[in-house]
Amino acid sequence: RDEAGRIVGYAPFLAERHIGRVAFGSQPIPVYRGHALRMLGSVAVAATETRREVEIAIAAALRSDPGVRVLRIQETLLLTTFAAALAEGPRGFARIASNLLDQTNWTILPQTSLADYLANLGSKRRNDLERRLRKVYKKLGDQACLRIFDAPEHIDDYCKLMNEVYARSWHATAQPIDWELLPRRTLLRSFAGEDHFIGHMLMLGPRPIAYVHGYRLGGHYLLDDTGYDEEFAALGVGSALVFDAIQNLIERHPAE
To answer: pTM for the full model?
Structure first.
């Protein structure tokens, strides 16, 4: 935060059990098994002119915490500005390339308008995505609708609905989360109050069946999590909602 208490940047992490492996010939060899912080994304979310300062501050806090031993930065090449900041100083983290598999971040460059974004997809890709989206809404019927949560007064309702749909997703087994915990709701209300949080949810009447949420800051949107009710997996509600949310975000916030 800056001197006025406004959020200027952040780096989101999930605490989880992790097995780190490195390749030895054709065999993956485990080098670590235990608790780790998994970073969502590859760099701190901040405006370009302040990102370096934000990353140095977050890295210093992580280096000084004796409980933080392993950080996992996935879907990226390891040599990022944030990884470099973590490695600085006498207590810097050692950088180990583990299970990279040539993954890349999924990024959409700034679009001047929704029409331009759809045009740039190309007719084949655009028609396929639009057909899938129409199919989902047609199969679900008149009770299907998109709900958007982006204000502090929306957060309690969003977290309640998140607990319902999350419990019916595969994520609940891999990473149990209580979305209605007071610290989580307080944090999301704070983000929403500064226009940093947006949640999209596909509803079937009063029942949530898919969700996408992320954070806006410094002209960037970082998708944090997406999931769906396993009962509707075959229908493709998850990918359909992601496309629906992308269109909504570009329409509301062009040039980001």
So the answer is: 0.68
